[in-house]
Amino acid sequence: MENFSEWYHNILETAGIYDLRYPLKGCGVYLPYGFKIRRYAFEAIRDMLDESNHDEALFPMLIPEDLLAKEGEHIKGFEEEVYWVTHGGTTPLDVKLALRPTSETPIYHMMKLWIKVHTDLPIKIYQIVNSFRYETKHTRPLIRLREIMTFKEAHTAHSTSEEAEAQVQTALNIYKTFFDRMGVPTIVSQRPEWDKFPGADYTMAFDTIFPDGKTMQIGTVHNLGQHFAKTFELEFETPEGGKDYAYQTCYGISDRIIASIIALHGDEKGLILPPEVAPHQIIIIPLLFKGKEEIAMNKAKEIYKSLKNTYRVKLDDRDIRPGKKFNDWELKGAPIRIELGPRDIENNKLTIYRRDTGEKFQIDEDNLLNELNTLIDSIENTIKEKAEQKVKSFITILDNHDVNNIKETLSTKKGVVLVPYDENIYTEEFEEEIDASVLGTTEYDGKKYISIAKTY
Ligand SMILES: Nc1ncnc2c1ncn2[C@@H]1O[C@H](COS(=O)(=O)NC(=O)[C@@H](N)CS)[C@@H](O)[C@H]1O
User: Fold this and answer.
1) Whose CA is closest to atom 11 on ligand 1?
2) 203, 322, 437 from 445: Cα distances, Å
3) Cβ–Cβ < 8 Å for 364, 349
4) What GO MF annotations does this protein's record show?
């Protein structure tokens, strides 16, 4: 783990997650194993959004130039990142089309057609799509992509600012719970004015801390106020018969949550996957001794059948040495392995190996389902607690704003530095001086701080 970046790039390939050899910078391929991790992670966020009365929808990827340019601050914020389509075949287009960097403009253009009276509100929709940003900084697989393959963007419209404010809190809770379920600890900051989402009133951001001590923004919640509503004329008739503009929020996560699960939970042997997103939660490995293969294989099939409706279980019956199988599944981060040899079977025992702690222990076969139940919970908690300890060890609270102190801490301890909030230093000049990013203002242990870090 000394060279985290090397470890990270290697694991994407050796664990069969992602192939970055695609011949276009900032783009890569989700391999089947990685695709399953992505699928289970985004199934979790889908469940949570649906649970919270959001509706999934789907909007076009192509945005006509005049539509994208409609909200001044927004287009200014994205003009250096937008990809343009200029031809249909050999025919030049009369209006060039943007590949969506994000979908405020197409969605709010349609909302104008949907919103007439206050009872048409609230609207709470989301889509999980690819989006495109011509990132000029260092691109990194699943971290800084030019084609963001898994861009979950939610957009809401409300009839009062109080309701929009409440929706921001709801979104923050959804993300907090989601990142918790992924075992990824985060620090929440309100981004500074100079680094908020283009066109937003304010931006709340979730940052996690990678093993190399750099932070990464893995989710954002924006209160858009009425900026976009005024630009897109999202006007509605109020209950009193008057007129008002809608109050909006939007919030997004991306492939970065996949990168975080890999980065925060992995170790020298490879991935350690939270059971919720593991493509295979349990691997059954029959130990085939000469002349006794049948016993182990039959028992393995029996156990497979007894588990397959409850867990994502795989029977590894490849004709290779057990040790090779053990290494493969430790590399791929399968949470639980069940080994069974003829002697175990005679004694009605099974050997369990848990990837998160590396422990190996015997259990009674009749007790398997109960054991697995408690084991899955224990693994989830252990993975989460380990990550929490690592992230906590990367947080330093200073009781002063001394620039050298801050720089010293960032270069030695790394991670996040919290200094007492003071509006006089909450400036871009200060950010220049410390040669790091001001993440924003952060509540920590009930106090208000300015959070500072080197970021991805
Ligand atoms: N180039 C990128 N590669 C991967 N993820 C990215 C990239 N750019 C942004 N993200 C992720 O996408 C999230 C949402 O992007 S954003 O610009 O902050 N917010 C929006 O686009 C709003 N429309 C809410 S979806 C960010 O918090 C970040 O985690």
Assistant:
1) 254
2) 21, 48, 22
3) yes
4) ATP binding; proline-tRNA ligase activity
| Atom from ligand 1 closest to the CA of residue 133 | 1
Task: Pick the atom of ligand 1 nearest to 103's CA.
Answer: 23
Is-contact 363 371, C-beta < 8 A? yes
Q: How many other CB atoms sit within 10 Å of the CB of residue 110?
A: 17
Q: How far apart are CA 439 and CA 452, in angstroms?
A: 5
Residue 36's SS3 state is helix
47/128 Cα distance (integer angstroms): 13
Ligand 1 pocket test, candidate residues 254, 257, 260, most atoms within 8 A of CB: 254
* Dihedral (CA of 62, 65, 66, 68) sign: positive
Which H or E run contains 387? helix 368-393
ipTM of model: 0.99
Please work out whether the CB of residue 217 comes within 6 Å of at least one atom of ligand 1: yes
**Interatomic CA distance for residues 414 and 419, integer angstroms:** 14
Supply the DSSP string of 140-209, one letter for each residue.
BTTTB-SEEEEEEEEEEEESSHHHHHHHHHHHHHHHHHHHHHTT---EEEEPPGGGSPTT-SEEEEEEEE
Q: Is 218 in the pocket of ligand 1 (CB under 6 A)?
A: yes
Ligand 1 within 6 A of 105 CB? no
158: tokens are 């409300």
Binned at pLDDT 50, 70 and 90, residue 203 comes out as very high
Query: Residues 448, 441: contact at Cβ < 8 Å?
Result: yes
Domains, the chain? 4-265 (3.30.930.10), 282-381 (3.40.50.800), 394-453 (3.30.110.30)
Residue nearest atom 19 of ligand 1, based on CA coordinates: 252
| Residues 6+ positions from 305 with CB-CB distance below 8 Å | none
First vs last Cα of the chain: how many Å apart?
Answer: 18
Largest interatomic CA distance in the chain: 85
Question: What is the pTM (predicted TM-score) of this model?
Answer: 0.96
Q: Tell how far the Cα of 453 is from the centroid of ligand 1, in angstroms.
A: 19
The string of DSSP codes covering 389-450 is HHHHHTEEE-SS--HHHHHHHHHHT-SEEEEE--TTT-SHHHHHHHTSEEEEEEEETTEEEE
Per-residue pLDDT of 259-316, as tens digits, reads 999 999 999 999 999 999 999 999 999 998 888 888 899 999 999 999 999 999 999 9
